[in-house]
Amino acid sequence: MTTKSRFFIAAAIAVASLAATGCDRDSATEPAPPNTDPTVFSDNFGDNVTYQAFLDSKVDAVTIVTNERYEGTASLKVTVPAPGDPAGGFAGGAFTTTEARDLSGYNALTFWAKASMAATLDVAGLGNDNTATSLYEAKWSGIALTTTWTKYVIPIPLAAKLSSEDGLFFFAEGPESGIGYDVWFDEIMFETVSTVRNPRPAIATQTLGVEVGEMVSVGGTTVTFDVGGTDQLIEAFPGYFTFSSSNQSVATVSADGAIDVVGAGNAMITAKLGTVDATGAVELTAAAAPTSAAAAPTLPANEVISLFSDIYNDVTVDTWSAVWDQADVADVQVAGDAAKKYTNLVFAGIEFTSQTIDADAFGATHFHMDVWVPDATAFKLKLVDFGADGAFGGGDDSEHEITLSETSTPALTAGDWNSVDIPLANFTGLGSRAHLAQLILSGSSRTIYVDNVYLYIGAAPDAPTTPAPTPTVPEADVISLFSNAYTDVTVDTWSAVWDQADVADEQVAGDDVKRYTGLVFAGIEFTSQTIDASAMTHFHMDIWTPDPTADPAAFKIKLVDFGPNGTFDGGPDDSEHELTFTASSNPPLATGSWVSFEIPLTDFTGLVEKAHLAQLIISGDPNTVYVDNVYLHK
Description:
Helix content: under 10%
Mean pLDDT: 91
Structural class: mainly beta
Oligomer: single chain
C-alpha cells in the first residue's frame, strides 16, 4: 500500500458549527482551548472528520449503514473488493480532521468491528493524515476479525507527541482467500484504557559501513504493549522516539530517525521512547570517499577478460544492477578514473547473460576486482554459472560465494582500495566455469566503489591454499585409507620400495594431506591387512596439482586385488584395473584446484574380486600431486 493518496469524501458529512458557550472568556485575548474530542465515528463521522481513500483503492468502499451496528443507529460498512475489481484492488484510506486534535490525554485508539467471514485485517492504525508527511503514524498489522462484534485496542506509542494531530484512523485490507467480503466498524474513538501497560520500545539493530556524506535511516521502530495480558506489537514511526548519537562528529540523527554521516570514525545511534530506553542500536563505521584511483592493471590484454576497466576492452555486461537486486549504482570519476559506485547496497546483481563467459576455454585462472569499502567486516562476491543450457534455472546452474574481511586471504582494509585476486579454483561450488553469467556483490558496507573487474590467466600456485572438501558420507558406510574425517584402516606404505615417487605428510589449512613429488608411479600398499570391499560401491580420492593438465596430460588410478590367497604372485586369483583421467574426462583433470574423483567400483571392470584389495597405484603426467580423502564407501 502506498502512502500517496487521492481525496475522496465517502459520505455526506454534516459539520456542526461550534459556538462559544461560556461568557467569561475574552475571545479577543485568550486562545481557543485545544480540541480533545475523542470521536472519529459514532453513528456518524465526528466533527470535521472526513474519509480519504488511498490511491488505487476502491474509492466507494466505505459507506454509512443503519442495518448493521454495534450500538446506536449506524456503523461504517467497508466493501472489500474481489480480485480484479475495476473499482480498485483493495479497500483502505485515512480518517482525517480539518481541525487538529489534542490526543495527548488518551493512551489508545479503540474500535468495534466484525466481518462477514473470519478474516485477517491487513492493517489499522492512527497518525496517518494522508499527506505523505505524517510524523506519528502507528499501526497494528494482522488483526483477526470474526463474525461477531469485537472491541479492538491500538495503543498510542507516546501520547505526548499527539498534541496537534490530523490523522485519526486508517485501515487497509485486500481480498481474502481470493474473494471480497464486508467489514463493519463502529464506535471508533480515542480512550484511556486501563489494560494498556508495559511499553517496550525497540529499534532494529544494524551494523553499517557507510561513507561520509551518506544518509541512512533508523529502521524497525516498534513498541510492544501488554494489552489485557497479551503482548501486542505496534509499528511506530521514528518520530515517536528520541535519538542519540555517541559521536556527533561522525553522525547526527534527526527527530525522524534520519542519520547524517558527517565524519569518518565510529558512532552508535540509540533511542528512547519518552524516558524508556529502546532495545537495539545502529552501529556505524564511516569512511571518507576515495580520493585516489585504484591501481592501474598491468596484465597484457590478451590474458584478460574484462568486465569493467579503463585499461582493457570490456565484454558485454547487460546490467550492473539487475532489476531483482537491492542496490543503486552510478558511474563516477575518482581522480579522473571511471568507477562504479554502489549505494543502498544490500546485494547487487551484475549480469552478462546475453553473452556468457567461457573462462575455461580462455584459460582464465583468477578473478580480479578493485573494491573500496568503508567497512571491512564482510564483503561477499559470488560467481554464478548457468550451465550448458546457458539459462538460469535449467537444472545445471552452479555458484560459489567468497567472503572477505580484515582477516581473510586476501585481507580487506576499510577506507582504501583493495586489489582482490582470487584463484577461480577457490570457487569450489562452481561445477563449471564455461558459462559464467552473473557476479553478485553484498556485505556489510552500504556504499562501495568498484573498478577493474576482470578474469585473467595467472601463474598456477605451487600448493593448495584451501583444503579438499570435507567428506559427508556416514562413517559406518566408509572404509577409509586416508582422511581426517574418518578412522583409517592400516596402510603399510604410501610409497612402496618398488615405486618411482617421493611422498611427504603436509597440512593445507590445518588439514592433513599426502604430497607426491617426482611422481612416475606410486605404490600404496595395505597387504598386511587386505580390504574386503565387497559391500562397497564407490572409490573416492581428492587430488590437487600445480602442473599443466591440458591434453595429453593424464592421471591414472589402479586398484589391485590379491585374490583369496591374499598374496601377490601373479597367479590366476590376482586381478586389477586402471582408470585414466584427463582434462576431457568426468570429472576433468584440472590445474590449481581440487578434483574429487567419485568412481563406481563397477568401472574397475578388470577386478574379478574386491574382497582382497591390497594395492592402490597412482601414476601419470602430473609430477606433483596432493592427495586427500582416499576411501571406499557404500
